[in-house]
Specification:
The chain is of the alpha/beta class. It is built from eleven helices and 13 strands. Strands 1-2-4-6-7-8-9-10 form an eight-stranded parallel barrel, surrounded by four helices. Strands 3-5 form a two-stranded parallel ribbon. The chain has a two-stranded antiparallel sheet with strand order 12-13. The chain starts with 7 loop residues before the first helix and ends with a strand.
C-alpha cells in the first residue's frame, strides 16, 4: 500500500468527494455529455491521481487472452491495473511475420526467449516460420470481449484500440494495407473517405459498425473504455498517418466521434487522442502534435507513444500545453518510465508497455517500477459498485 504521508493529498480529496456530491467538484467533464456515470467516475479518477501517481498498464494481443499481463505479474508479483488490447485484423500476404509485432488475430504470440538467447553476430537471424492460427477475427474479438468482462469484474481498467485495414480491404489484409508508408491515401481519396455518402465512406462505416458492436456489448455490461483509435497519427507509417491540418486527420477523428457517439449512442468511451512522441528520424518521422489535434471539444485524454526510451521533457510539456488542462498519458511504451522520469514528468496518468517488447527490458527495472510509490497497481485500488475509484490507504 502507498505510505500515508504520500497519500495525504488523495485523502483530503477523498474526504471532499465523500462529504459532497461528486458532481459539484470542479472536474473536467467528458466530451460526450451523455457519458455513463461509470465512465464519468473513471475520468474523474484519472484527474484525481494526475500529478501524484501513474497507473500501471500492459497491452495484450487480440484473441491471446491475458498473456502479457500474466507474464508481468509472474515477473513482479503485481498486477498492472490497466488492461489493454486491440480489435486488430487478420494478416495475409507474402511476409505476414513482418507485422507480427502488432498481434494480428491469426498469428501466434512471439517467442520472447528467442530474442533473449545469445546469437552469433556473424550470422543473420532467420525469420520465424509462419504458423497461422485456426481462428477467425470474429472469434478472436469475441474471446477478447469475454476476457475484458472478467478483468473488469476484478477491478481492471480497460483500454482498447484498432489496427484496422484500409476500408477497401475489409478485416483481413496484407500488413502493408495498414503500414502504408508512402502508399497512404492521396488528398483526393482522403476527402472521399471522410465525406458522407461516398462509396469509400460507406466502406469505412462497415468496418466501424463491427467495432461499435463490440463496444456496445461492453456498454451493455456497464464497462467504460479508454478508447484510443487511429493512434500515432502524426507519424508516417499507418494509412491514417501524416494527414496534416484541418482537412486531414482531424476530419477522420471527428467523423468517428460523431458516428460512434451520435449514431451508435456509445456513451461508455473516454476518447484518448494518442500521438507518437515527435521525432526527426529520416523515414520514421513523427510531426508536432498540434498539426493533427482535432480540438479539446473532441478529446478527453491526450496521449503519446514513447519508444527507444525517448522520454524528452518536451513530449510531456507540449501535450500539457496543447490540452489546456486535459489529462495526459503514455499510450504505449517499450520501456517503462523510471522514477526519475516520473519526477520530471509527473502528469503522465498512466503508461502501457506494448506486448512482448517490455520483456526485452531489464527485469529489475520493471520490478522496481511496478513497486514504486509513484505507480499504482491493481491491489492498490478500490472500486465501488458505481464505478467510483479510490486509492487504498491501508
Amino acid at each position: 500500500m502507498k505510505p500515508l504521508i504520500q497519500l495525504f493529498p488523495v485523502l483530503v480529496l477523498a474526504i471532499f468527494i465523500f462529504g459532497c456530491n461528486q458532481s459539484t467538484k470542479d472536474y473536467i467533464q467528458p466530451i460526450n455529455p451523455d457519458a455513463t456515470q461509470k465512465t464519468k467516475n473513471l475520468y474523474y479518477f484519472i484527474q484525481d491521481i494526475q500529478g501524484t501517481y501513474s497507473l500501471s498498464g500492459q497491452h495484450n494481443f487480440v484473441g491471446k487472452g491475458s498473456d502479457y499481463t500474466d507474464q508481468l505479474e509472474e515477473m513482479t508479483g503485481l498486477k498492472a491495473i490497466i488492461w489493454g488490447s486491440d480489435f486488430s485484423f487478420c494478416v495475409d500476404g507474402e511476409n505476414p511475420m513482418r507485422h507480427q509485432h502488432c498481434g494480428p488475430a491469426n498469428l501466434p504470440a512471439i517467442d520472447i526467449e528467442r530474442f533473449r538467447r545469445p546469437r552469433d553476430s556473424t550470422q543473420r537471424m532467420q525469420p520465424p516460420t509462419v504458423e497461422y492460427l485456426d481462428i477467425t477475427l470474429a472469434e478472436a474479438r469475441d474471446s477478447t470481449i469475454k476476457v475484458i468482462k472478467e478483468k473488469y469484474a476484478i477491478g481492471h481498467i480497460i483500454t482498447l484500440m484498432w489496427h484496422g485495414c484500409y476500408p477497401t480491404e475489409g478485416d483481413c489484409c496484407d500488413g502493408t494495407s495498414i503500414w502504408a508508408m508512402e502508399n497512404r491515401p492521396s488528398p483526393e481519396e482522403w476527402d472521399k473517405l471522410v465525406t458522407e455518402g461516398t462509396e469509400l465512406n460507406d466502406m469505412w462505416k462497415e468496418g466501424a459498425d463491427k467495432i461499435a458492436g463490440y463496444l456496445k456489448e461492453l456498454q451493455d455490461a456497464n464497462i467504460p473504455v479508454l478508447w484510443r483509435p487511429y493512434h500515432e497519427m502524426n507519424g508516417v507509417w499507418f494509412w491514417w498517418c501524416n494527414h496534416k491540418g484541418d482537412q486531414g486527420f482531424k476530419r477522420l477523428w471527428i467523423m468517428m466521434y460523431d458516428y460512434f457517439t451520435n449514431h451508435h449512442k456509445l456513451n461508455n468511451l473516454i476518447w484518448v487522442w494518442n500521438t507518437n512522441a515527435p521525432r526527426d528520424i529520416p523515414g520514421d518521422e513523427a510531426w508536432p502534435y498540434e498539426l493533427f489535434y482535432p480540438g479539446t471539444e473532441y478529446v478527453d485524454v491526450l496521449a503519446a507513444d514513447v519508444y527507444r526510451n525517448d522520454y524528452k521533457q518536451s513530449h510531456h510539456d507540449d501535450l500539457i500545453t496543447l490540452g489546456g488542462g486535459k489529462p495526459i498519458a503514455l499510450g504505449e511504451v517499450s520501456n517503462m518510465p523510471t522514477e526519475e522520469i516520473l519526477e520530471q514528468q509527473p502528469q503522465w496518468t498512466w503508461f502501457m508497455p506494448w506486448g512482448w517488447i517490455l520483456f526485452l527490458s531489464d527485469s529489475e527495472i520493471i520490478k522496481e517500477m511496478m513497486s514504486s510509490e509513484k505507480v499504482l497497481t491493481l491491489d492498490e485500488i478500490e472500486v465501488e459498485k458505481n464505478g467510483r475509484y479510490s486509492v487504498k490507504t491501508e
